[in-house]
Structure formats: C-alpha cells, structure tokens
Amino acid sequence: MQNLSARTAGFTDSVIRRMTRISLQYNAINLSQGFPDFDPPAAISTRLAEIAGSGPHQYAITWGAQNFREALAQKQRTFTGLPIDPDKEIVVTCGSTEAMMVAMLTVSNPGDKVIVFSPFYENYSADAILAGAEPIYVPLNPPEFRFDPDVLEAAFKQHPKALILCNPSNPCGRVFSRAELDIIAVYAKKYDTYIITDEVYEHIVYTPHTHTYFATLPGMFERTISCSSLSKSYSITGWRLGYIIAPERIVETAKKVHDFLTVGAAAPLQEAAIIGLHFPSSYYYDLANVYTEKRNLFIKGLSDAGIPHIIPEGAYYVLADISEYHYESDVQFCEDLARNIGVAAVPGSSFFKTPVNHLIRFHFAKKNETLIEALNRLDLMKKLKHF
Ligand code: GLN
Fold it and tell me: 192 C-alpha to center of ligand 1: Å?
C-alpha cells in the first residue's frame, strides 16, 4: 500500500491529551489537560436545557449564528474598544483550536515560515506542519520567560509570514507587557508579518498584570488575526466554541477555510452561550478573583511542600521543577507520578523546542478541594523522595 501523507509522518499524538488518558487509567487527579472540574455558570446550563426543547438543532450560518456574532462583537467591543463588525470581522469556529488552524491556512503557503515562541502550546507546531509552514522558534528565556529583542528580530529577518502570540501564555504563565508587545508590533510592521494571537486566557490575569489585546496596538488591527474561545472564560471547554476576529480582508478568506473544514460550530451551543456573552463586567472580575484564589492556594501548597515552581502572571498553569528527582525522561516522571502518587501533569518537554526534561506543568482549574487533595499527594511525593 502507498504511504500515508508525508505531512503527518513526523507527528505524535498530543502529549497533553495523552496525559488525560493516562490519568483516567490510573484514576489520578488530572492536573494535566487544562479544563475545569466545576460547572459552568448556572444561567448557561439552564439556557442549554431550554434549547434542547426549542432548538435550534440544524446548522447555523457557517461563520456563526447572527445573534451569537452580534453578542460576541458587543462583548469584545467592551473589552477591546475596537468597533468590531459582527458580519464582516468574525468567524465562529469549533474552539480556538480550529480558529488557529484556520488562521494558519488563511495566511500561509507551504514553505512559509512562522515564528513560534518556545515554550509553546503544542498545537502550534502541529498547525504549522499541517499547513506546510516551517516554524522558527524564538526562546522565552526562563525564569522570567522574556524574549531577547535581537533574537526576535533575527527571526523576523527570515521574512516569516506570521508570528503566533499566546498571551496570556500557556504554559509559562507570562502576560506580555505593553513594552514587549510594542517591540513585536514594530517588527511586524517593519517586516510585514501577520500576528496570529491565541488569547483564550484573556480574562484569567493576576493583579498587577493586565491583558493588552494585540489588535488594539496602533496600526496592528489590520495585520492581526485574534483567536480566542468561550472555553476558559465560561468553563465550557467541551462546547468547542471559538472564534477569529480580524479585518474583513482576512475574514473573507478565513470564512471559506472554516466552511470547508467544519461547516460550523454547534448551533444549539452557540444559542445557549449567548447569555454568557451578555454577562456584566462583574462576571469577569469574579472569574479573575476565583482563579487568583486557586493560583494562590496552589502555589502556596507547592511552596509549603518545597517544590520549586514559576509564579504565573496569567492563565492557569504552573511549571514546576523536578530536577531533584534526576529522571532522564520527564514523560516517564509524569507517568510514574500519575500511577504512584495519583496526580497527572504534562511533561515540560512537550512545550519546548530545546531539550528540557526538568519541568512539568500542572493546571489549577479545579475545585479547591481537588487542589488540596492533589497538594496532599504532592507533599507525600516530596517526603518520599523516590516513588
Ligand atoms: N489548552 C489546554 C491545555 O493546554 C488544552 C486544550 C485542548 O486540549 N484542546 O491543557
């Protein structure tokens, strides 16, 4: 038989999603794949129950139901100050995962280069490979996870078609400052490069840090494809509701790519989520407070147990240092951790371009009682030294 496609030959499955399966196998507390174990806001689930009776149950307009796009445009206008046109500047997608893939296919040709910061969320390299693009990795240097502007400019000098910007950042928890974003903007203009953002953690930011939407920087809206989703903001990761916001010139093409990839996001779920898009600003303030409490609880627990870690500025992940266990493979460490301690984490190596085996990623989007039980188990790990 003929070989399968060459573009998939270098692929592994997603390490993040594999860790969820390993977690289930060992009945561990799953702090690997980032999703909540608590319910979405009651107003949203109640609305979903109503829609089970009333519908819609058939396709929405391929680039998103009209009322969903209008509600989304209104909400994002409030947070960004941009005059977003719901008809011309939005594509609703199956999660931000599809949004990012559509963005990549919309701007890049096979052989084009795309800048990706490392560490990075593993989908970005897969998206580049699927689109036939070649990633140029620019390091975010630990422990602060900042980029060197000269190294970044050297990457721009290779004339990339796009840069992928995850902000707030998964897995390192950076919230890029205005000054850092300004540097990216200067290069984007100078080297005529598109910016594809992943801003799914836009509402999960810890004081004193604040999120700046890249598209709001002077002159940047025209070259920015802003991708985000409702998954994290409303605790509905399984609903797969994401979107692209971009200028009409880009959205016209993105609509076609999306249409032929998936036709559309689930119509009843779009309808049910509209109520969330109308929530007052206090909802987002409360969400940030809930996650601030979880972050503080979790990092205090890690500190009390003596587990070295990075303090995130945004998103809901913590990178912890496991150097003292002298594992050659962080993948093996995470499997042993799930089996013997009952906590699942993601091996750090899956996020870095350079070889790294001393970091693992926990997420803390869990009920406080779940986090406390996980911390008890990690404390035991620390006391056992070997496990
Ligand atoms: N963003 C989540 C994570 O990094 C997972 C998203 C997904 O699996 N689609 O864990």
Answer: 30
- Residue nearest atom 9 of ligand 1, based on CA coordinates: 97
pLDDT tens across 39-57, in order? 999 999 999 999 999 999 9
pLDDT at 10 over 80: no
User: Which atom of ligand 1 is closest in space to residue 122's alpha carbon?
Assistant: 4
SS3 assignment for the chain? CCCCCHHHCCCCCCHHHHHHHHHHHCCCEECCCCCCCCCCCHHHHHHHHHHHHHCCCCCCCCCCCHHHHHHHHHHHHHHHCCCCCCCCCEEEEEHHHHHHHHHHHHHCCCCCEEEEEECCCCHHHHHHHHHCCEEEEEECECCCCECCHHHHHHHHCCCCCEEEEECCCCCCCCCCCHHHHHHHHHHHHHCCCEEEEECCCCCCECCCCCCCCHHHCCCCHHHEEEEEECCCCCCCHHHCEEEEECCHHHHHHHHHHHHHHHCCCCHHHHHHHHHHHCCCHHHHHHHHHHHHHHHHHHHHHHHHHCCCECCCCECCEEEEECHHHCCCCHHHHHHHHHHHHCEECEEHHHCCCCCCCCEEEEECCCCHHHHHHHHHHHHHHHHHCCC
- Residues having CB closer than 6 A to ligand 1 are 16-17, 33-34, 97, 121, 170
Q: How far is the CA of 371 from the centre of ligand 1 (A)?
A: 18
Report residue 302's pLDDT band, with 50, 70 and 90 as the boundaries.
Answer: very high
pLDDT tens for each residue of 136-157: 999 999 999 999 999 999 999 9
- pLDDT, position 386: 67
Residue-range domains of the chain with CATH: 6-40+282-381 (3.90.1150.10), 58-279 (3.40.640.10)
What distance in angstroms lies between residue 16's CA and the mean position of ligand 1's atoms? Answer: 7
